[in-house]
């Protein structure tokens, strides 16, 4: 049965309005993508890879604090072996047919994440090399992701910008470039944990590592950008594409000024202060000022 027909039939069996259903495929993928859609009140249809998927999804729901969710295992829909069972979190029923999907009414006070850019820094494992939440939100707005866009995230660090770019639309794509293998692996793990496992990482140093990559619709360089890397990214960028570069050092800032002279665009200074302890009292402690250059290729 085609996927659309299967989902329509499942929604009809439960009396769900089809337009309210979020469809997530775990066919050929781990169950991580389900995590991107966990918030109280969501109605999910999860396309299972096989009979093991229901147990893995239930474990994910428990781990994320959504153990109050109602879960239905729907097997062999439309056939002679059709069966629909509501399952509890205590016991997983046996004999699940390989042809199954899960219908989930998400409930609970779990760690569901917001749907706009600027996720908490704590949502990502990192070693300090992360674009902070407030700057990340501005950066994503400047990158202006459109459905189906490909982003080059150069010097990805924890992967936070690229991951949020993927969360903006399920058709979006990211190629992250990172010279440090440990950071590259951490970024890949962060992507899987946040439900965007379709995150490609190239271990290498720019600009050399950019050669041969598919032409991007957007390029982000998060720090340490040199004239050569900015030039290579700009040359590869598709017409109408956006490039955003953030700088916190005067050396990288100089490269941004040079890019502004060559390519035009917009320069912005961003400053953020966060509350911190000062002895027994509190005060606002400023972070490093970020200079951001945004250019749009004509």
Give the helix/strand layout:
Blueprint: H1 3-14, E1 21-25, E2 43-47, H2 53-63, E3 70-75, E4 83-87, E5 100-105, H3 133-143, E6 150-154, H4 160-168, E7 173-178, H5 181-193, E8 200-203, E9 218-221, H6 227-236, E10 242-247, H7 250-263, E11 266-270, E12 273-278, E13 281-286, E14 290-296
Parallel strand pairs: 1-2, 6-7, 6-9, 7-8, 9-10
Antiparallel strand pairs: 2-5, 3-4, 3-5, 10-14, 11-14, 12-13
What is the name of the CATH superfamily of the largest domain?
A: Vaccinia Virus protein VP39
CATH architecture of the largest domain: 3-Layer(aba) Sandwich
Strand numbers in spatial order across the main sheet: 8-7-6-9-10-14-11
Stretches with pLDDT under 50, minimum 5 residues: none
CATH third-level topology of the largest domain: Rossmann fold
Q: Provide mean pLDDT, rounded.
A: 92
Overall helicity: 25-40%
- Counting structural domains, the number is 2
Structural class: alpha/beta
Question: Mind explaining what this structure looks like?
Answer:
The protein is α/β, with parallel strands linked by helices. It folds into two domains: 3-105, 2-Layer Sandwich (Methyltransferase, Cobalt-precorrin-4 Transmethylase, Domain 2), CATH 3.30.950.10; 121-296, 3-Layer(aba) Sandwich (Rossmann fold), CATH 3.40.50. The protein contains seven helices and 14 strands. The chain has helices at 3-14, 53-63, 133-143, 160-168, 181-193, 227-236, 250-263, and strands at 21-25, 43-47, 70-75, 83-87, 100-105, 150-154, 173-178, 200-203, 218-221, 242-247, 266-270, 273-278, 281-286, 290-296. It starts with a helix and ends with a strand. The mean pLDDT is 92.
């Amino acid at each position: 049965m085609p996927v659309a027909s299967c989902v329509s039939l499942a929604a009809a069996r439960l009396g769900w309005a089809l337009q309210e259903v979020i469809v997530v495929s775990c066919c050929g993928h781990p169950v991580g993508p389900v995590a991107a859609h966990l918030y109280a009140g969501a109605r999910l249809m999860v396309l299972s890879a096989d009979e093991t998927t229901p147990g893995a999804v239930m474990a994910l729901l428990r781990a994320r604090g959504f153990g109050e969710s109602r879960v239905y295992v729907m097997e062999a829909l439309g056939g002679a072996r059709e069966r629909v069972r509501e399952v509890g979190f205590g016991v997983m029923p046996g004999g699940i047919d390989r042809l199954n999907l899960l219908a989930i009414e998400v409930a609970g006070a779990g760690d569901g994440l917001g749907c706009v850019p600027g996720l908490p820094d704590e949502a990502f494992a990192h070693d300090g090399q992360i674009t902070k939440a407030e700057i990340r939100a501005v950066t994503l707005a400047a990158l202006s992701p459109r459905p189906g866009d490909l982003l080059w995230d150069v010097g990805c660090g924890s992967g936070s910008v690229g991951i949020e770019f993927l969360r903006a639309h399920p058709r979006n794509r990211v190629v992250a470039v990172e010279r440090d293998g440990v950071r590259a692996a951490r970024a890949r793990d962060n992507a899987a944990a946040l439900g965007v496992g379709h995150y490609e990482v190239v271990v290498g140093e720019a600009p050399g590592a950019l050669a041969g990559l598919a032409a991007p619709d957007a390029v982000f360089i998060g720090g340490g950008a040199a004239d050569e890397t900015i030039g290579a990214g700009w040359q590869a960028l598709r017409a109408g594409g956006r490039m955003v570069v953030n700088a916190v050092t005067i050396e990288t800032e100089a490269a941004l000024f040079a890019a502004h002279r060559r390519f035009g665009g917009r320069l912005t200074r961003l400053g953020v202060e966060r509350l911190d302890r000062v002895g027994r009292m509190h005060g606002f402690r400023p972070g490093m000022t970020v200079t951001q250059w945004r250019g749009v290729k004509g």
